[in-house]
Design goal:
Distance between the termini: 14 Å
Strand content: under 5%
Mean pLDDT: 89
Structural class: mainly alpha
Largest sheet: none
Number of helices: 9
Length: about 200
Amino acid sequence: MSGKVDIRQPLEFGWKVFRENVLFFLVMMLILGIPAAIMGVMVKDTPWLSLSVLFLRGVAWLWRVIAAMAVILVSLSYCDRNSFDIRQAEAMKPLFIPYLLGSILFSVMIGVGLVLLVVPGIYLAVRYQFMPYLIIDKGMQPMDALRAAGELTRGSWLDLFIFLLCIVGINLLGALLLGLGLLVTVPVTFVAHASVYRSFVPAGQ
């Protein structure tokens, strides 16, 4: 796909969805965020070679994967139906392994790119940003999702890069407010990002 990516409209949509469902998103953020925060505190400044710490770090990483899947599923649901039914979470079960493998592949790819003078990592992160969505939305396997994500963003890299910079800036502002602002900015920007994905892959396509 080639074309200009709207920046204002997705952010306005994300804010509208959040404003109309404040309690739901705040509860979701606390449910997903509190366990991750607790585990982060528990492993802070502890030696990596400890088996118990390694286990806890692994659990924390798996929890972040599950949280990311849940946020994508919820965001797409609000884009498509302006609501979310908890029963939709059942759809995540068969997608966990593909998403987990996809997360590893994506992280390694970006990590290697960042080591190579940073710029390649940024390029890859923007080019293949919709890979996780394709796994959740279309049930694709990691390599298929990677190829499809690359094709989707062809010709729109710069616009998507600017949009992601806006998202990062908004969440940095949220973090400055003692971190409490993230309870608002994270769901707003996730829904906005899902909205941009939907502009590339309409529901049902």
